[in-house]
Design goal:
Blueprint (H helix, E strand, L loop, with lengths): L1 H12 L8 E11 L5 H10 L3 E9 L5 E4 L3 E5 L5 H23 L3 E4 L6 H11 L6 E6 L16 H18 L2 E4 L2 H10 L5 E3 L7 H8 L5 E7 L8 H14 L4 E5 L5 H13 L6 E4 L4 H10 E6 L8 H8 L3 E5 L4 H4 L6 E4 L4 H13 L1 H18 L2 H21 L4
Parallel strand pairs: 1-2, 1-5, 2-4, 5-6, 6-7, 7-8, 9-10, 9-12, 10-11, 12-13, 13-14
Antiparallel strand pairs: 3-4
Length: 411
């Protein structure tokens, strides 16, 4: 049934192919594996309905790669230090983009953030000298003013804040179309915008596996689940402290923390926190896993918790809801777009460990409440996101770009 539903979405999307052939280039710091993961393959097979698609990003295995699979990929090696990655990206991405314009006539560049858009702004202004029309779309997937400082320690934070603010103002002034993933990122973009068209739709979420896992109706375990990268912004240290209080009231409960140690220092601190709290027998750290396995971890858990201090949307909440699992999240960023208090989950203030503990205890002690919330979340998420809605969003962006091109002098 689930596969049939997604096949129907795919048949609908074919009718959205653009009337004039667009050539799109996605530009950002995202990592891609070779071969592509299943979820990326689905995403770019969908997007090719808009025209030819090119992607400049980073290689998940650290090796430079160029291949074609649903789209054309040009992947840079991911060097270990962030400053080296920035130098690499801003030195090489513009050259690759120029080559793609020359060879494939790329006419739409979609930058993942105002900072990554810096690699495209110079190229846009250069080709303008040739009277070539290149439409720049700048997206916002995070609170771009603060997210860096919530991920790792930054030397000279005052200097970086001023620099980042200046770059964001400049690149957003150069943008022709803006795209937000939530109401909070939309509000932030509007503070910087110069009246450009702004399109809002959720980030790509491959729900097929999660819906299928939820349909299997697995028996729930007294498990609390966190799934995401291990960085300070995610607030996992608050979750561990709150869980220490949960164990005192619900001794049979356990906590699973699944994710990549993006910040190794922070990940080590989390393990030390567990040991110092004598929770080693109750807390399990699991490596990042493919969606086809993660979906069953979610489906078997009583509740998924996202204790973030800042979050643009919280895609993992959509995935958990699709499995029929209740969620608890902090009331930050775009999370209130997803979680309706007391309906499909609970909202707590960021950093409020007592409130978080009480909500987790409530769901663990009242499995019928958790089940009802999960069912309501599952019903709601199918109306909020679908491949068809996602493609419609980018089709609207392409339409805005064509309107901009028609109104601009060019070739």
């Amino acid at each position: 049934m689930i596969k049939a539903t997604f096949s129907a979405y795919h048949r609908q999307t074919v009718t959205l192919a653009t009337s004039s052939h667009d050539c799109l280039c996605f530009l950002g710091g995202s990592r891609y594996s070779y071969p592509l993961s299943e979820t990326h393959r689905k995403k770019f097979n969908l997007l090719k309905n808009l025209g030819s698609v090119h992607v400049i990003g980073f290689s998940a295995d650290g090796r430079p790669r160029m291949f074609r699979e649903a789209a054309h990929f040009y992947l840079l090696p991911q060097w270990p230090l962030p400053v080296l990655r920035y130098i690499e990206f801003f030195a090489l991405a513009p050259l690759i983009l120029l080559a793609l314009i020359w060879r494939y006539r790329v006419n739409v560049v979609i930058a993942q953030s105002p900072y990554e858009a810096l690699a495209a702004v110079g190229v846009k202004n250069l080709v303008r000298c040739w009277r070539y029309r290149l439409c720049l779309v700048v997206e916002s997937h995070n609170d771009f003013e603060t997210y860096l400082f919530l991920q790792r320690r930054v030397v000279w934070p005052g200097f970086y804040k001023r620099l980042m603010r200046w770059v964001a103002r400049w690149t957003l002034a150069q943008a022709d179309v803006l795209r937000a993933v939530s109401s909070s990122t939309q509000a932030q973009l509007q503070r910087y915008s110069h009246g450009q068209p702004l399109v809002q739709f959720a980030a790509w979420t491959d729900l097929e596996s999660f819906l299928a896992a939820g349909q299997a109706l697995p028996e729930k375990q007294p498990t609390i689940l966190y799934a995401g990268v291990l960085i300070p912004r995610k607030g996992v240290h608050h979750l561990i402290t709150a869980f220490g209080r949960v164990v005192q009231r619900v001794p049979q409960s356990c906590l699973k923390i699944i994710g990549r140690p993006e910040n190794p220092t922070y990940a080590r601190a989390l393990r030390q926190q567990v040991e110092q709290s004598h929770l080693q027998d109750k807390v399990a750290f699991l490596a990042e896993m493919p969606q086809q396995k993660l979906c069953y971890e979610m489906a078997q858990s009583t509740v998924l918790v996202l204790p973030s201090l800042s979050e643009a949307l919280g895609r993992v909440l959509l995935e958990a809801m699709a499995t029929g699992t209740a969620v608890i999240a902090t009331q930050v960023g775009g999370i209130p777009d997803i979680v309706q208090e007391g309906v499909n989950g609970f909202l707590v203030p960021p950093g409020d460990e007592q409130a978080l503990a009480e909500k987790m205890i409530d769901l663990l002690q009242h499995p019928d409440l958790a089940k009802a919330m999960g069912q309501r979340g599952r019903a709601w998420v199918e109306t909020y996101f679908s491949p068809h809605i996602y493609l419609q969003g980018y089709a609207q962006i392409c339409q805005q770009c064509r309107q901009w091109c028609d109104a601009s002098p060019g070739v």
